[in-house]
Sequence to fold (399 residues):
Amino acid sequence: MKKKTLEDIDLKNKRVLLRVDFNVPLDDALQITDDTRIAKAVDTISYCLKHGAKLIIMSHLGRPKSSKDTQFSLKPCAERLSQLINKKVELLSDCTGPAVKAKVDALKSGEALMLENVRFHPEEEKNDPIFAKELASLGEVYINDAFGAAHRAHASTQGVTKYLPAVAGYLLGKEISYFEKAVSNPDRPFITILGGAKVSDKIKLIDNLLNKADQILIGGAMAYTFYKILGIGIGNSKFDPAGEEVAREALKKSKEKGVPIILPVDRVIAQKMEKNVPTQIVTGDIPDGWSGFDIGPASCKQFIDILKTAKTVVWNGPVGVCEIPPFDKGTRELATFLASLKGVTTIIGGGDTAAAVKKFGLEDKMSHVSTGGGAALEYLEGTVLPGVAALLDKEQVSA
Fold:
């Protein structure tokens, strides 16, 4: 990676402002249902504390309308982090102001505290320079370890870098290194699997990958838009009108560039998207009243035969409705196969795909499972992530 990391800067006795992504799912009782993002920040947090930093941790959680939306408090995150690092991490009641400053000034080397949700302040998402300067005034060094928020030009991800020397944490560095190699210099064959609902959401992604990948496998609901323009009946399956022209253009470019777009050869269909409903497998038109919800067994074999040749695989989007059995079978079979590969770089692009891989118990068998769905998508699209671009380059001399 071309950016400086926490190992390139002296942290001893410094007030270190650390941006993490603790935007974790909570249940109705405000209990964390998946602590992956907190657990994956522990390496950076532990390094900072071990090297004598006075650590000030900040994050967002959800989309609060105001500071009165207490269900978006970072309290559960502070408690879980305290358990993971076996050290008390106090949650402050705000992220700026005299009371916060006093607590920060009282911090000793090797201690950590957490600011309350930065999105309790509307200035955060507006990247307000006054708010960014207030946050920056708490620290002497800034570390960004929030890959899941790196595609946002917000006060805590980009604004603060105008006032502090800014470097990457371990998680952000790992994320960028994997995606950078995949899009710039992948071991080939480089094969991508794209799923999800809408073709129109993946315009830039498909366009960019047609210049990078050797083959593109398409599953999920987005496949039905391709089927329709190819004259295959899709019954009541999801169709993305806004993506119709995108799909046509993609197929045209695929031929021009010699990068095959591979569609599933069979589909699992049902009349309702419910658990354990009667299903059929079809290879041709889907009848009216029926919808496609997963790739079929012949498609699983078709995709796996192609993936057997791969040296790099990037997967963004499940190939079926993987949260509802039996429509999780295609996604599960592909994930299980990828997990068995040796000497192949397998990158799971965050979001629903990452959640599925974790649910199947296969997370540790992949080369990399991203913590940022939106950020991963934008990086693969070729978009510059503002939270990464703002960090110091290796060549630069930090303040």
